């Protein structure tokens, strides 16, 4: 389950997942150039020593794009956003990002098709796939067969996502 509330001067994102033992959650508050909350120190520690990269974030959920934009910009990266696969393919050609973070279930061209197209046209493309399809890893497995280097179920652990970003950028370097 995910919730998002927008306030006039700050965005408050609260993502939570119900587990067998209770509830696991993340809460962060950030404005245009700041991140506060339990992950703000972790963001700086995880990304220390890495140069700025361009990252394309594709998700039809505004709250996920906003969360990832805040964390990635706090880490010093340039973020480009797309709300579906069709827009993502166009933005990829225009920006040639160092890394792509892509949702799999979206309108227009879905993330699986976009992953396959990017992997075929740009062999060195690094894609991290994610999906909110509960209990079905098939989408993530297919994404990896189509060229995604990593795959995450939503809600994902933000620290694990940042480590995956860091590791993928370390293998490609920033442009």
Strand order of the largest sheet: 5-4-6-7-8
Low-pLDDT sequence parts: 1-50
Helix content: 25-40%
Domain count: 1
Q: What is the name of the CATH architecture?
A: 3-Layer(aba) Sandwich
- CATH homologous superfamily annotation: Response regulator
- Average predicted local confidence, pLDDT: 77
**What spatial form do the alpha-carbon principal axes imply?**
globular
Radius of gyration, in angstroms, nearest whole number:
15 Å
State the end-to-end CA separation: 36 Å
Report the structural category: alpha/beta
Count of strand segments: 8
Structural descriptors:
175 residues, alpha/beta, single chain, 5-stranded parallel sheet, Rossmann fold, 8 strands, disordered N terminus
Structure description:
- By secondary structure, the protein is an alpha/beta fold.
- It has one domain (39-172): Response regulator (Rossmann fold, 3-Layer(aba) Sandwich), CATH 3.40.50.
- Helix content is 38%, strand content 27%.
- It is built from six helices and eight strands.
- A five-stranded parallel beta sheet has the order 5-4-6-7-8, sandwiched between helices. It has a three-stranded antiparallel beta sheet with strand order 1-2-3, covered by helices on one side.
- A hairpin with a 4-residue loop joins strand 1 and strand 2.
- Mean pLDDT is 77; it is low at 1-50.
């Amino acid at each position: 389950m995910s919730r998002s509330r927008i306030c006039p001067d700050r965005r408050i994102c609260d993502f939570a997942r119900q587990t067998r033992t209770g509830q696991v959650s993340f809460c962060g508050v950030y404005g245009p150039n700041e991140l506060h909350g339990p992950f703000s120190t972790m963001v700086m520690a995880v990304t220390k020593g890495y140069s700025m990269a361009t990252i394309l974030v594709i998700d039809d959920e505004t709250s996920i794009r906003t969360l990832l934009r805040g964390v990635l910009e706090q880490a010093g990266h340039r973020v480009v956003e797309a709300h579906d696969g069709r827009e993502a393919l166009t933005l990829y050609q225009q920006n040639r990002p160092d890394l792509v973070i892509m949702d799999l279930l979206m309108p227009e061209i879905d993330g699986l098709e976009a992953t396959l197209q990017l992997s075929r046209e740009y062999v060195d493309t690094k894609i991290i796939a994610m999906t909110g399809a509960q209990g079905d890893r098939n989408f993530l497995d297919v994404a990896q067969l189509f060229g995604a280097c990593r795959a995450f179920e939503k809600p994902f652990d933000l620290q694990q996502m940042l480590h995956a970003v860091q590791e993928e950028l370390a293998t490609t370097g920033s442009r």
